[in-house]
Amino acid sequence: MHSKNWSGDARGLRGDALVFLPGEKQILETRDLLVRSRVDWDVLPLYGRLTGPDQDKVFAGHTRRRVVLATNVAETSLTIPGVRFVIDAGLARVSRYSPRAKFQRLPIEPVSQASADQRRGRCGREGEGICLRLYAEDDYQARPRYTEPELLRTNLASLILQMAALALGSPQEFPFLDAPDARLLNDGYRLLQELGAVDGERRITRLGRQMAALPVDPRLARVLVEAGRTGCMSEALTIVSFLSIQDPRERPADKAAAADEKHALFADERSDFVGVLNLWRASREPAAGGNRVLRHWCREHFLSFLRMREWGDLREQLEDISRPLAQGNGDRPAAGTAVLHQTLLTGFLGGIGVLDQARTYLGARDTRFVIAPGTPLARRSPHWIVAASLVETHRLYARMVAQVQPSWIESAGAHLVKRSYGDAEWDAQRGMAFARETVSLYGRVLSSGRRVSFASVDPAAAQRMFVEEALVRRQPSMPFAFLERNTATRARLERVESCLRRRDLLAGEDALVRFYLERIPPAIASTRAFESWWRKEERAKPHMLDAAEPVFLVQDLPEVRARDYPSTIDVHGNDLQLHYRFDATAPDDGVTLDVPVPLLRALDAQRLEWLIPGWLREKLIALLRGLPKEVRREIVPIPDAAERLLAVLPPFGTGSLSAHVAAFATQEAGIRVEPAQVAAVALPPWLSVNVRVLDGAGRLLKASRDLAVLRDELRSPSAGSTFAEAAPDFAWERVGVRQWDFASWPVETIVRSGRLQLRAYPGIQDEGASVRLHLFMTEGGARRASRAGIVRLAALALPQQHELARRQWASDREFTLLLAAAGFGKELPGEIADRAVADAVLGQTGELPRTRVQFEALVERGRADVVDRAGETARIAKAVLLALKDVRAQMGQSNGAPFAPVRSSVIAQLTELLAPGWVRDTPDGWWTQLPKYVRAIARRMEARAETSSGIASCSHRSSRMRSRSGACDCPRTST
Questions:
Q1: Model confidence over 472-483: pLDDT tens digits?
Q2: The pTM is what?
Q3: What are the two backbone dihedrals, phi and then psi, of residue 954, each rounded to the nearest 5 degrees?
Q4: Backbone angles phi and psi of 265, in degrees to 5
Q5: More exposed terminus of the chain, fewer Cβ within 10 Å: N or C?
């Protein structure tokens, strides 16, 4: 573009040019383009945000021709002198409110025909002019005739509020010249509901009437009303009046950096609202100095003096109008920033946003925006913000922004937030149910996972959970008698169900829950509330919450005889507890017997075979079904056979059940069945008693259905350890006893250990030079030990005879040589003397004396026979030594590798036969046969071919001898 093109036309027109562009950005871009093109014209911008002095340049006198680049602000409001040419781009930035997105938009749109005509008229105000339109005539003709009225493109909340306050009726029915769209009206109502100005039925509220009295936007009015309540009216008036005018801060294009530096003096890094307060406070001192001082201060800080004056005037007017709102809060100290921002939030809840990514915020109703440039928060990007306005140009920008906390938003929007709740959970420590709450506003989650009382969410469900957990499941346990009684009733019925092994008698927990709910007031949903109520109610109706048996049952209870399902078993006068359980997957399914470890060996294994009377029939059926097929075939049907067996069994617990079953099967089937076969039948676990061994503190040591395994694993390190701390009914335990100076020797006695009553078996134990009076756990152990003890007491009562018998064989040269050759020590003569005393005093019967009189009579009877008995004993011992000499000779000749297995067997056999104490301890029935067994070993060494079988035979005899269980029944050995 060159100046010669604008010097005139055929009509000789000269003058300035006015160019209509849609916005500030386009104006600045066009100006830069013209400046770079070096046109011989002055280029002046004209738009709303331009500073006052820069706008005044358009109207100043001038000599050079100029081009004014203006927005549609120059359509009707201004007459620019000297304009004879108009260039119209046909576009303008039009403010439109989006009811869907809830924010103001500034899209660039084609202007209407009326606006285009207005622009054309700008070049003919002083004379003829020329208008150049940068669009086709067809485009012009297609445009609407008039610009859409502002009523149709703005938020109508203020209009609706004023109509409601003036009682002008419904906006839908009001005779507007241009009736607004129903979407705009609905959106206006939604905003007023958000602000609390109208209720759910669109009727104005008391709060709405207070807002309607304030001549500002409803959002700002809501802030002022809230400020009167919270005591921050002064700060709110400053901010509201600022937001009601055009921003007084100016930013000349040629001094942008200097303006930013001055404006930064008032900025706050967390809140633009606080920055406004800082600016207001800073302006109060120059304002007090008069207009001249304030004008100078404004010029220095790049502020519009007129807008600053407008700000102050508007604030004073609003302060007068809103004075009634602040009554009662005048003496409050200045509010903190937290209170101020919570107050501001009441008006700007639609402007909240949470940081998403790349400095983009997620706002209400899924909008996305960024913080407008020029504010400190744009650099910090706080997590939660609130904006006074959202304006869309080429992007959606948040203006006048502050950092906030989600709890402030929740408090300000309490009437709008949506609360959702996760599954409720029971807190036994607090005695109440809690739910995890999620609070959201317009789709943005303000808090998640917060614990709240479930009673405030769903009182009925909370009470039910309280009853289920606290009263039925006893979490936590409360000290009320009715709970113990109900628990005992249910436990008794559960035991019956377990005894009968049924699952169709007891009702579920719901039955007891319903029982409680019918009697407890609906408001009670925590242990604290229940305790307070029940302590008062219990005095008048102590059994009101006692549940009768029918509450727990779904059908009538069958008749159950207590003796069929005992709760205890008597073991030596101790009632040991039986526990019943019906759960095939549990290790303690069936019946469990609790046994203190001291009573473990006192249990009668045969009694445990019988199980309990109520399950005996099922056990008999299982045992009969486990017999070999050829036996079962003869006794079918099995249930009938079990009934016949039950009829012939002796009283419950008498003898071995396996033996009884074996005898019955043998008789019924005609095929011999051994008790061991019956005992080996694999039974379901519940048909055997589960024995649970407990220590002194009641702690579980071991549990098993095999009594032998339990006894093996829990074997005491010493025979008498069980009675170490027990207190017998009479003093028996003594050491160093050398004569019968004690009372009669009982077969058994009772020992008390704590609360247990233990059966003990007194015995007399040989200790070499004396005896020890000792308590044994079994009768057999006491009897075996006491024989040697009685012999020792007899030897001590016959010292001369015992010593004579010992010396007689200790001085025998041949006997001494044989002992040395066999490798035995000098203790053998003493053993000969001990055995001689035993034979002389006790004889072959083995009956032991129980009283002192009996003992002394036996000693006197055997006094004269000790020496003779010693000779007989020495003769047998000598025969054994001679046979042993032959065995050793044979072993000396059998040194080859083929004889290694035989040698090992022989050595093991001799070790068993001639163990230490063999002269004294070998039972009478085996004693006379002992030389024969040793000679048999020598002869088998000679017969190499039969060595293995011979040694095996001797091994059998050795085991029988060492068991001391009876007389020898081995056949005579042949060579």
A1: 999 998 999 999
A2: 0.63
A3: -65, -35
A4: -65, -25
A5: C
